[in-house]
Design goal:
The structure is a single chain. The protein is about 35% helix and about 15% strand. It is of the alpha/beta class and about 400 residues long. The protein folds into two domains: about 140 residues, Alpha-Beta Complex (Aspartate Aminotransferase, domain 1), CATH 3.90.1150; about 250 residues, Type I PLP-dependent aspartate aminotransferase-like (Major domain) (Aspartate Aminotransferase, domain 2), CATH 3.40.640. It has a seven-stranded mixed sheet with strand order 2-8-7-6-5-3-4, sandwiched between helices. Strands 11-12-15-14 form a four-stranded antiparallel sheet. It has a two-stranded parallel sheet with strand order 1-13. α10 runs parallel beside α12. The longest helix has 27 residues. The protein is globular, with a radius of gyration of 21 Å. Bound molecules: pyridoxal-5'-phosphate (PLP). The site of pyridoxal-5'-phosphate (PLP) has 14 residues, from α4 and α7.
């Protein structure tokens, strides 16, 4: 038996295990230190009451013979698909058909799995820095050689996000087949404007490319002029798939529910040059390899769209975004140059002169007992930067800011 040798191309130490190792070793040496974690992008507020209530009721339904349910529709229950269509799309003037929505158990899986429907030879463009799943899933599929000394995989087209472009790179000038975009962005916390997304959609139409648009943080957008969905851009239904998740929108990181929109207008070429709808391929893939998200979970997700669910989850997002505002102000007062944190729960800061992102990680841990995420973990262009997350209690965020100002201000 031979293994998939492409796995050997992945870096030996994944970012978060290495962070965990350093934090454990620090805590062992300093047992009295109260470490505050602003590292991993995970929500901290408990599930909203309207969601808990809906899930309790769904468990009760499952507990009687009359209302018990076994396997559900692989693409998702109608009650959830219709809530998605109405609230996320129709309310913004976008018409998405029910069979263009695929409910799943997470956007991480969707963003990792979607590459299966592209040719092995497909040219992939990714931004740098980037959400690592887009990179690693394509490395595993064998679309690259081993990473070079610069940390880059030959085979990918890298689109560098930097201070000059506000961490929102423009479309590539060399041909690619697929590009992964994430806005509002993890890790940089920046957001794409309507003009920028329009340039992406026009580029994709001109070059016959496909955009994978990860909108996991769309509900954190506060400026009404910014698009929440790529389908707000004319023509996007011919070139873009959109990934959405209840993880950050409704605190579902531990509950698990997401969906991907695959409009029937998005097509690719078969070996004979015939156009095939990606929707057909994804429907086949999804129904073959996935048996549907849990009924209980989908009932909880649908409750996030009820008036009470919306009010309660929006209040959670406001809490996180007020944390982000406090972090932005506190870090600026401490002398840091920062980006993001206005339409996303992440602050992207420039590390102080002379410190790499891992050196700054150690310095922050030692002097302020605060954990963040080194930018280098998100790609070579992340070196020199550092991500802080606004997902925490107000008390912890205020304490973290006070300690950082004391240590660096
Ligand atoms: C958190 C996050 C997701 C959501 O992933 P789930 O698997 O749905 O929890 C997707 N994309 C990005 C960039 C994220 O940060």
């Amino acid at each position: 038996m031979r293994i998939n040798e492409h796995y050997a191309k992945l870096p030996a130490s994944y970012l978060f295990p290495e962070i965990g190792r350093r934090v454990r070793s620090f805590a062992a040496a300093h047992p009295d230190a109260k470490v505050i974690r602003l590292g991993i992008g995970d929500v901290t507020e408990p599930l909203a009451p309207a969601i808990v209530e809906a899930m309790h009721a769904a468990v009760d339904e499952m507990g009687t013979r009359e209302s018990f349910r076994g396997y559900g529709p692989e693409q998702g229950y109608d009650f959830l698909v219709e809530a998605i269509r109405a609230n996320d799309y129709k309310a913004r003037g976008i018409d998405i058909a029910a069979d263009e929505i695929f409910v799943s158990d997470g956007s991480k899986c969707d963003s990792g799995n979607v590459q299966e429907i592209f040719a092995h030879a497909a040219k992939i463009a990714i931004t740098d820095p980037v959400y690592p799943v887009y990179v690693d899933s394509n490395v595993m599929a064998g679309r690259t050689d081993a990473a070079g000394a610069d940390g880059r995989y030959p085979g990918f087209t890298y689109l560098v996000g930097d201070e000059a472009n506000g961490f929102q790179p423009e479309p590539p000038s060399t041909p690619v087949d697929v590009v992964y975009l994430c806005s509002p962005n993890n890790p940089t916390g920046t957001v794409a404007t309507r003009d920028q997304l329009t340039r992406w959609v026009e580029w994709a139409k001109r070059t016959d490319s496909v955009i994978l648009f990860d909108a996991a943080y769309e509900s954190y957008i506060s400026d009404p002029s910014l698009p929440h969905s790529i389908y707000e851009i004319p023509g996007a239904k011919d070139v873009a798939l959109e990934l959405r998740s209840f993880s950050k929108r409704a605190g579902f990181t531990g509950v698990r529910c997401a969906f991907m929109v695959v409009p029937k207008g998005v097509t690719g070429l078969d070996p004979e040059g015939k156009r095939v709808a990606l929707n057909t391929l994804w429907a086949r893939r999804h129904t073959t390899k996935f048996n549907g998200a849990s009924y209980i979970v989908q009932k909880g997700a649908a409750a996030a769209y009820s008036p009470a669910g919306l009010a309660q989850t929006n209040a959670q997002i406001e809490l996180y975004m007020e944390n982000a505002r406090l972090l932005r102000e506190g870090l600026t007062a401490a002398g840091f140059t920062i980006f993001g944190g206005v339409h996303a729960p992440y602050i992207w800061l420039r590390t102080p002169a002379g410190l790499t992102s891992w050196q700054f990680f150690d310095r922050l841990l030692e002097t302020a007992n605060v954990v963040g995420t080194p930018g280098a973990g998100f790609g070579p262009a992340g070196e020199g930067y550092f991500r802080l997350s606004a997902f925490n209690s107000r008390a912890n965020v205020e304490e973290a800011i006070a300690r950082i100002r004391k240590a660096f201000g």
